[in-house]
């Protein structure tokens, strides 16, 4: 029998070019509103979502602008993790990313899953 968890991990592989990035953060914010501890793990072009000013390039009405969705997510206690090789392959460093974003390997995501976190992928 699977145990219940109050954790959600959202894996985001789509960047500023995709409406799925806004959908992912809308759902992540909804998870926090539902009382879940939510972490977002960014890979591939998803890294560009947390490059300083990168998220300001995306707005998918009627959803809130991506920059607002990410800001709200962080203010409400959501964690944002960025894949180290994906950050490096773009030539970014920690200083290029939004405050509060943690460059960390998939092991952080795996630890949450081992503790029963639900997962969603975008």
What fraction, in percent, of the residue positions are helical?
A: 25-40%
Q: What is the chain-wise order of helices and strands?
A: EHEHEHEHE
CATH topology: Hypothetical Protein Ychn, Chain: A
CATH class: Alpha Beta
Strands, count: 5
- How many distinct folded domains? 1
Uncertain parts: none
Question: What are the salient characteristics of this protein?
Answer:
alpha/beta, 5-stranded parallel sheet, 5 strands, Hypothetical Protein Ychn, Chain: A, 122 residues
Description:
The chain has 122 residues and is of the alpha/beta class. It has 4 helices and 5 strands. The chain has a 5-stranded parallel sheet, with helices on both faces. Helix 1 links the parallel strand 1 and strand 2. The longest helix is centred in the N-terminal third of the chain and has 15 residues. The chain is globular and about 35 Å long. The chain starts with 6 loop residues before the first strand and ends with a strand.
Topology, element by element:
Blueprint: E1 7-12, H1 19-33, E2 37-42, H2 66-75, E3 79-82, H3 84-89, E4 102-103, H4 107-114, E5 118-121
Helix pairs in contact: 1-2
Protein name: Putative peroxiredoxin
Organism: Rhizobium lentis
Pfam families: DsrE
Summarize the structure.
The chain has helices at residues 19-33, 66-75, 84-89, 107-114; strands at residues 7-12, 37-42, 79-82, 102-103, 118-121. With 122 residues, the protein is an alpha/beta fold.
């Amino acid at each position: 029998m699977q145990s219940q968890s109050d954790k959600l991990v959202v894996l985001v592989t789509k960047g500023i070019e995709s409406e799925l990035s806004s959908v992912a953060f809308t759902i992540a914010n909804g998870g926090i509103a539902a009382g879940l501890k939510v972490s977002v793990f960014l890979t591939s072009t998803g890294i560009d979502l947390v490059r300083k000013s990168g998220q300001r390039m995306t707005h998918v009405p009627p959803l809130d602008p991506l920059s607002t969705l990410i800001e709200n997510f962080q203010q409400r206690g959501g964690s944002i993790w960025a894949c180290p090789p994906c950050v490096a392959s773009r030539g970014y460093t920690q200083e290029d990313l939004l405050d509060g974003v943690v460059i960390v390997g998939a092991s952080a995501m795996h630890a949450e899953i081992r503790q029963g976190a639900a997962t969603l992928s975008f």
